[in-house]
Amino acid sequence: MKHLRFGLLFVAAALAGCTSTQFDPQQTASARTEICKATSEAEIAGLFDRWNRSLQTGDAQQVVANYARQSILLPTVSNKPRLTPAEKLDYFQHFLESRPSGKIDLRFVELGCNTALDAGLYTFTFAKTGASVSGRYSYTYRWDGAKWLITSHHSSVMPEK
């Protein structure tokens, strides 16, 4: 009988241990201590303007400064994803040779806690050639405690003319 009680006690303890390690979304959410930066669609839309102004400088370093250290650039005119600041710098040094300037044609903004998405359609005009190209874009941003930085940037030419 002593062994049976010990066995039951052991099983009960084991089951209690299992239930206490299960994922509880309510507990996880309440334990979260992150403070969300207040923002607006207008502020997030202005981040494209900041990025576009950095293009106008012709300085690839200023463009790359808009990106978080850990971020990805999936550019329009390169098949190579750019993950490091050096890879982004290489891309923008070549891209800036055409003196590009972007204009938003359609925008969708979604706000989160210290994150934001800006996606839509834009047109780039290249001062060097006078050509223009329409494309799709998406930027995701993260607040780093001091400023908004791009964490992912995808751009592609419109598939239909």
Condensed summary:
This protein has helices at 2-20, 25-31, 41-56, 60-64, 85-95, and strands at residues 67-74, 100-111, 115-126, 132-143, 148-157. By secondary structure, the protein is of the alpha+beta class.
Describe the protein in words.
The structure is a single chain. By secondary structure, the chain is α+β, with helices and mostly antiparallel strands. It is built from five helices and five strands; from the N terminus they run ααααβαββββ. The chain has a five-stranded mixed β-sheet with strand order 1-5-4-3-2, covered by helices on one side. The longest helix has 19 residues, at 2-20. The chain is globular.
Kindly state the percentage of residues in helix.
25-40%
CATH architecture assignment: Roll
Structural class: alpha+beta
Beta-strand portion reads 25-35%
Question: How many structural domains in the coordinates?
Answer: 1
Tertiary shape: globular
Count of separate DSSP helical elements:
5
Unreliable spans are: 3-24
Beta-strand segment tally: 5
Oligomer: single chain
Give, in spatial order, the strands making up the sheet with the most strands. 1-5-4-3-2
